[in-house]
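ok so I'm stuck.
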Amino acid sequence: MKPILKESVARKQRPFWQIIVLVIIAVFIINYLISLTNFLGEKYAGIVSIAILLISVAACSFIVTKFIEYYTYKIADDTLIFEKSIGKKSKVSLMIDIEDIEKLIPYGEMKEDSNIDYTYKFVCDKDYNNFYVGEFNREGKQIRFIFKPSDKFIDMLKKRRKIEG
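replied:
not stuck anymore, here's the structure
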């Protein structure tokens, strides 16, 4: 399956100084919380300190992952493929036959629909004016996906299959 068209979208990178400031603030907050555990007594202070450290590590991992992840959209063999990538690893999140796409409209034209069973979001920012919303039906469930393609990508999708919208 050779991609005919491939695009990637990623977050805008923060300046290095902002990242350093955030790390320093996080270290001070964690240090302060651990210092507060000294008032709990010997029995509970160690347990609470370890819990704070574990929660901090988990939160930092989640935040770092969110900052370095990006999405790739591909059209290959009449299939629309969405991949979530972190570093060099990528994982297919959604594959749709282009023929199965029922709607493809700009985000601003989307109407609230209670019939939607699940929504996939393949975006990294809040530039709603450039988002598109697609809908398809799989195994009796109405599924929606939101992504930020280029005009060239949208034109290719519409050429491959006549889509409402």
